[in-house]
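Thread: quick sanity check before group meeting

JM: Hey all, I'm pulling together slides for Thursday and realized we never actually wrote out the predicted structure for the chain we discussed last week. Dropping the sequence here so it's in one place. If anyone has concerns about the input, flag it before I start.
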Amino acid sequence: MGAEVYGRLCRARAFIDHCYDHPLNLDQISSQACFSRYHFLRLFRQAFHKTPHQYLIERRIEKAKELLSTDNLRVTDVCFEVGFQSLGSFSSLFHKYVGHAPVTYREKARQRELAKRKVPGCFLVMYGLDSATSV
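JM (edit): ok, ran it. Output follows.
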């Protein structure tokens, strides 16, 4: 795969990263790389070892994990904030990718944060459990 083709694919991937919270379809994404939808699909899978849809879902799940860990939004609000249209599909996909339901993930994240507060910051940094900037 040439550098020019790879650059166009990266431009489409950056578009997904930027617009993950909007309803996106293959035509919109492939137009960012200036390829037909089916040619783009083959090239994207070849370059990144996943389809654009799989990449979009992973991006949304990662953002949902971040929101569930840091914000006090309801799970329903997180679902719509990251671009899912259905709470049921969000919950099942979240469980598939993360291994826990969103509510369970939030509780585990809160427990991790509480446990970190009981450990001196220098130990967290020394063992790579936290960055020096959050100490």
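AS: nice. The chain has eight helices and no strands. The chain has a mean pLDDT of 91.
JM: adding both to the slides.
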